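subagent[fold] <- orchestrator: predict structure for attached chain, return C-alpha coordinates only, no commentary.
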Amino acid sequence: MKKHSYEEGEKIYVAVDCIIFGFDNGTLKLLLFKRRVDPFRGFWSLIGSFVRPNENSSDAAKRILLEITGLSNIYMKELRAYTDVNRDPGARCISIGQYALIRIDDHDEKLAEKHGAKWFPIDELPPLVLDHEVMVQDALKRLRAKAQFYPIGFELLPKKFTMPQLERLYAVIFQEDFDSRNFRKKLLSLGILEKLDEKDKTTSKKGAFLFKFNRGKYSSKEKKGFSIPIFKNREIL
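subagent[fold] -> orchestrator:
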Protein backbone atom coordinates (compact mmCIF):
# COMPACT_ATOMS: atom_id res chain seq x y z
CA MET A 1 0.00 0.00 0.00
CA LYS A 2 1.31 3.41 -0.99
CA LYS A 3 2.26 5.63 1.91
CA HIS A 4 0.93 9.18 1.92
CA SER A 5 2.38 12.29 3.51
CA TYR A 6 1.34 15.85 4.21
CA GLU A 7 3.80 17.04 1.54
CA GLU A 8 1.56 15.51 -1.13
CA GLY A 9 -1.34 17.81 -0.25
CA GLU A 10 -1.99 21.09 -2.01
CA LYS A 11 -1.71 24.38 -0.18
CA ILE A 12 -5.01 25.87 1.00
CA TYR A 13 -5.33 29.10 2.98
CA VAL A 14 -7.65 29.46 5.96
CA ALA A 15 -8.99 32.90 6.86
CA VAL A 16 -11.51 34.49 9.18
CA ASP A 17 -13.84 37.31 8.22
CA CYS A 18 -15.53 39.33 10.96
CA ILE A 19 -19.04 40.71 10.55
CA ILE A 20 -19.02 43.46 13.20
CA PHE A 21 -22.39 44.99 14.10
CA GLY A 22 -23.00 48.15 16.10
CA PHE A 23 -26.06 50.27 16.94
CA ASP A 24 -25.95 54.06 16.76
CA ASN A 25 -28.63 56.78 16.53
CA GLY A 26 -31.38 54.23 16.00
CA THR A 27 -29.53 52.49 13.16
CA LEU A 28 -27.93 49.04 12.94
CA LYS A 29 -24.46 49.47 11.44
CA LEU A 30 -21.63 47.34 10.04
CA LEU A 31 -17.90 48.03 10.33
CA LEU A 32 -16.05 47.75 7.01
CA PHE A 33 -12.59 48.63 5.75
CA LYS A 34 -10.76 49.18 2.47
CA ARG A 35 -9.11 45.95 1.35
CA ARG A 36 -5.30 46.21 1.38
CA VAL A 37 -4.32 43.24 -0.80
CA ASP A 38 -4.93 42.17 -4.39
CA PRO A 39 -7.24 41.22 -5.89
CA PHE A 40 -9.78 44.02 -5.28
CA ARG A 41 -7.34 46.23 -3.38
CA GLY A 42 -9.10 49.42 -2.25
CA PHE A 43 -12.62 47.95 -2.38
CA TRP A 44 -14.83 47.73 0.69
CA SER A 45 -14.49 44.49 2.61
CA LEU A 46 -15.28 42.76 5.87
CA ILE A 47 -12.42 42.87 8.34
CA GLY A 48 -10.43 39.65 8.13
CA SER A 49 -7.08 37.91 8.31
CA PHE A 50 -5.42 34.59 7.63
CA VAL A 51 -5.39 32.24 10.62
CA ARG A 52 -1.87 32.02 12.05
CA PRO A 53 -0.21 28.64 12.80
CA ASN A 54 -0.60 29.12 16.56
CA GLU A 55 -4.29 30.18 16.42
CA ASN A 56 -7.69 28.60 16.06
CA SER A 57 -10.33 30.55 14.14
CA SER A 58 -11.82 32.13 17.29
CA ASP A 59 -8.41 33.31 18.47
CA ALA A 60 -7.77 34.87 15.06
CA ALA A 61 -11.12 36.70 15.16
CA LYS A 62 -10.45 37.99 18.69
CA ARG A 63 -7.03 39.25 17.56
CA ILE A 64 -8.58 41.11 14.63
CA LEU A 65 -11.28 42.68 16.77
CA LEU A 66 -8.73 43.85 19.33
CA GLU A 67 -6.50 45.30 16.60
CA ILE A 68 -9.34 47.17 14.91
CA THR A 69 -11.59 48.21 17.80
CA GLY A 70 -9.38 47.99 20.90
CA LEU A 71 -12.04 45.77 22.52
CA SER A 72 -11.81 42.31 24.05
CA ASN A 73 -14.33 40.06 25.82
CA ILE A 74 -17.14 41.03 23.46
CA TYR A 75 -20.04 38.98 22.12
CA MET A 76 -18.73 36.94 19.18
CA LYS A 77 -20.03 33.74 17.61
CA GLU A 78 -18.91 31.54 14.74
CA LEU A 79 -21.24 31.78 11.77
CA ARG A 80 -20.15 29.11 9.26
CA ALA A 81 -17.37 28.11 6.88
CA TYR A 82 -17.33 29.41 3.30
CA THR A 83 -15.64 26.83 1.11
CA ASP A 84 -16.65 27.51 -2.50
CA VAL A 85 -13.70 26.60 -4.71
CA ASN A 86 -13.89 29.84 -6.68
CA ARG A 87 -14.78 32.22 -3.85
CA ASP A 88 -11.37 33.96 -3.91
CA PRO A 89 -9.57 34.49 -7.24
CA GLY A 90 -6.34 35.26 -5.37
CA ALA A 91 -5.85 31.72 -3.99
CA ARG A 92 -7.72 28.65 -2.81
CA CYS A 93 -8.98 30.00 0.49
CA ILE A 94 -11.54 28.80 3.00
CA SER A 95 -13.00 31.51 5.21
CA ILE A 96 -14.72 31.07 8.57
CA GLY A 97 -17.24 33.81 9.28
CA GLN A 98 -17.46 35.21 12.81
CA TYR A 99 -20.07 37.79 13.78
CA ALA A 100 -19.63 40.18 16.68
CA LEU A 101 -21.77 42.72 18.52
CA ILE A 102 -20.16 45.79 20.07
CA ARG A 103 -21.23 49.02 21.70
CA ILE A 104 -20.09 51.69 19.27
CA ASP A 105 -19.43 54.12 22.12
CA ASP A 106 -16.98 51.67 23.68
CA HIS A 107 -14.72 51.06 20.68
CA ASP A 108 -11.55 53.03 19.93
CA GLU A 109 -12.70 55.28 17.09
CA LYS A 110 -9.21 56.58 16.29
CA LEU A 111 -7.82 53.05 16.17
CA ALA A 112 -10.53 52.00 13.73
CA GLU A 113 -9.84 55.04 11.55
CA LYS A 114 -6.13 54.22 11.60
CA HIS A 115 -6.97 50.89 9.97
CA GLY A 116 -9.24 52.58 7.44
CA ALA A 117 -12.40 51.17 9.02
CA LYS A 118 -15.75 52.93 8.71
CA TRP A 119 -19.29 52.33 9.98
CA PHE A 120 -22.09 51.98 7.42
CA PRO A 121 -25.86 51.74 8.05
CA ILE A 122 -26.91 48.16 7.30
CA ASP A 123 -29.30 49.32 4.58
CA GLU A 124 -26.71 51.58 2.92
CA LEU A 125 -23.78 49.20 2.44
CA PRO A 126 -21.39 49.71 -0.48
CA PRO A 127 -20.64 46.77 -2.83
CA LEU A 128 -18.45 44.25 -1.01
CA VAL A 129 -15.69 42.00 -2.35
CA LEU A 130 -15.78 38.23 -2.83
CA ASP A 131 -18.70 36.55 -1.02
CA HIS A 132 -18.81 39.08 1.81
CA GLU A 133 -22.34 40.22 0.96
CA VAL A 134 -23.48 36.62 1.43
CA MET A 135 -21.72 36.53 4.80
CA VAL A 136 -23.48 39.71 5.91
CA GLN A 137 -26.90 38.35 4.94
CA ASP A 138 -26.18 35.06 6.71
CA ALA A 139 -25.10 36.96 9.83
CA LEU A 140 -28.28 39.05 9.77
CA LYS A 141 -30.42 35.91 9.56
CA ARG A 142 -28.52 34.40 12.49
CA LEU A 143 -28.82 37.62 14.47
CA ARG A 144 -32.60 37.71 14.01
CA ALA A 145 -32.98 34.06 14.93
CA LYS A 146 -30.77 34.28 18.01
CA ALA A 147 -32.51 37.42 19.22
CA GLN A 148 -35.62 35.34 19.94
CA PHE A 149 -33.87 33.32 22.64
CA TYR A 150 -30.99 35.48 23.82
CA PRO A 151 -31.26 39.24 24.44
CA ILE A 152 -28.28 39.99 22.22
CA GLY A 153 -29.64 43.47 21.65
CA PHE A 154 -28.24 44.39 25.02
CA GLU A 155 -24.75 43.84 23.65
CA LEU A 156 -25.41 46.71 21.23
CA LEU A 157 -27.15 49.20 23.53
CA PRO A 158 -25.50 51.52 26.05
CA LYS A 159 -25.35 50.08 29.57
CA LYS A 160 -28.29 52.35 30.43
CA PHE A 161 -31.03 52.72 27.83
CA THR A 162 -34.64 53.76 27.41
CA MET A 163 -37.51 51.53 26.38
CA PRO A 164 -37.91 53.42 23.06
CA GLN A 165 -34.22 52.75 22.33
CA LEU A 166 -34.70 49.07 23.05
CA GLU A 167 -37.81 48.90 20.88
CA ARG A 168 -36.04 50.70 18.04
CA LEU A 169 -33.13 48.29 18.19
CA TYR A 170 -35.35 45.24 17.85
CA ALA A 171 -37.39 46.96 15.14
CA VAL A 172 -34.28 47.41 12.97
CA ILE A 173 -32.98 43.91 13.72
CA PHE A 174 -36.29 42.26 12.79
CA GLN A 175 -37.22 44.85 10.16
CA GLU A 176 -40.70 45.26 11.55
CA ASP A 177 -42.50 47.64 13.88
CA PHE A 178 -44.02 46.57 17.20
CA ASP A 179 -46.94 47.82 19.22
CA SER A 180 -45.11 49.90 21.84
CA ARG A 181 -47.39 48.99 24.75
CA ASN A 182 -47.30 45.28 23.96
CA PHE A 183 -43.53 45.37 23.41
CA ARG A 184 -42.94 46.99 26.80
CA LYS A 185 -45.31 44.57 28.56
CA LYS A 186 -43.71 41.46 27.03
CA LEU A 187 -40.13 42.52 27.70
CA LEU A 188 -40.83 43.55 31.29
CA SER A 189 -42.64 40.24 31.91
CA LEU A 190 -39.35 38.38 31.41
CA GLY A 191 -37.92 39.93 34.58
CA ILE A 192 -34.56 40.69 33.01
CA LEU A 193 -34.86 44.49 32.98
CA GLU A 194 -34.25 46.85 35.89
CA LYS A 195 -35.95 50.25 35.88
CA LEU A 196 -33.67 52.98 37.22
CA ASP A 197 -34.50 56.20 39.04
CA GLU A 198 -32.92 58.12 36.20
CA LYS A 199 -34.33 59.68 33.04
CA ASP A 200 -32.98 60.48 29.62
CA LYS A 201 -34.15 64.01 28.78
CA THR A 202 -32.27 64.45 25.53
CA THR A 203 -35.43 64.16 23.42
CA SER A 204 -38.06 65.73 25.70
CA LYS A 205 -38.45 67.73 28.91
CA LYS A 206 -40.48 64.94 30.48
CA GLY A 207 -37.84 62.40 29.59
CA ALA A 208 -37.91 58.61 29.50
CA PHE A 209 -36.88 56.31 32.33
CA LEU A 210 -33.62 54.46 31.91
CA PHE A 211 -33.29 50.70 32.25
CA LYS A 212 -30.42 48.27 32.55
CA PHE A 213 -30.09 44.58 31.85
CA ASN A 214 -29.88 42.22 34.85
CA ARG A 215 -27.54 39.48 33.68
CA GLY A 216 -28.00 37.44 36.84
CA LYS A 217 -31.75 37.11 36.33
CA TYR A 218 -31.29 36.35 32.65
CA SER A 219 -28.73 33.60 33.38
CA SER A 220 -31.24 31.93 35.69
CA LYS A 221 -33.94 31.99 32.99
CA GLU A 222 -31.51 30.92 30.28
CA LYS A 223 -30.79 27.64 32.07
CA LYS A 224 -34.51 26.80 32.09
CA GLY A 225 -34.97 27.93 28.50
CA PHE A 226 -37.32 30.64 27.27
CA SER A 227 -38.11 32.67 24.21
CA ILE A 228 -38.94 36.34 23.85
CA PRO A 229 -42.67 36.05 23.18
CA ILE A 230 -43.14 39.10 20.98
CA PHE A 231 -40.99 37.80 18.11
CA LYS A 232 -42.01 35.39 15.39
CA ASN A 233 -40.08 32.15 15.10
CA ARG A 234 -37.20 32.41 12.65
CA GLU A 235 -35.02 29.65 11.30
CA ILE A 236 -31.50 29.51 12.68
CA LEU A 237 -28.86 28.91 10.04
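orchestrator: received. Logging for downstream: The longest helix spans residues 132-146. The beta strands are 13-24, 27-34, 44-45, 47-50, 75-82, 93-101, 117-121, 161-162, 193-200, 208-213.
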